[in-house]
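### Sample
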Amino acid sequence: MTTIAGSLQAALPKPRYTGEDEEAPARAQQRGVRVVGPGQLDETQLVLKRSGPPPYGQRSGWRPRAQEDFGDGGAFPEIPIAQYPLDMGKKGATTSNALAIQVDSEGKVKYDAIARQGHGENRIVHTSFKDLIPLRQRAETGEIDLSRPDKESVAATTERTKNALAKLVSGAVAAQKPKNVNVGQQREATYVRYTPANQMGDNSKKQDRIIKVVGKQQDPMEPA
């Protein structure tokens, strides 16, 4: 058999195309998962990204770094590192109480920002040497009239203060009153005196009774 194959190969001419340089057709290409380098990726190729931890027995040296590594689960107690699944327990951005340096028109540092820290904008804080000088001795204040006001000024100021306080009190009282409640007219209760007779076949003498008749109470929450 070997002699026949050898004589047949010797009698036939050598093949012109060996097929080593030809590409296999698409239907004959190898199917399945192929490991390729980053330079061999094409835009038309689909790349599957696996999320979650590797299977047990293959976690030697593996550490969870991103949220995808936890795979919708919790931390791994066998891995002794800080883990924050779903960012639980992770400290966020902290605010600092440090004051920014401020300067005045002359370029000098305004250290009064330290004294104003923690106070409102409407609070007056004296932080300069000028605040120690009395108002009468300041050059920019001019003349200050400290005379006692007359009775007309006092009466006008008192009236304005009274009206302002009355407006505040009336507003607070009006806010506490219920609105859109129709209480109706309150009728006085009436009393009816009667003597029961022939109740359940009982013909014995009965004492007089008094009934108090009142109007039906209207529910303020009942829709109209």
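Strands lie at 190-194, 209-213. This sample (Pre-mRNA-processing protein 45) is used throughout the tutorial notebook.
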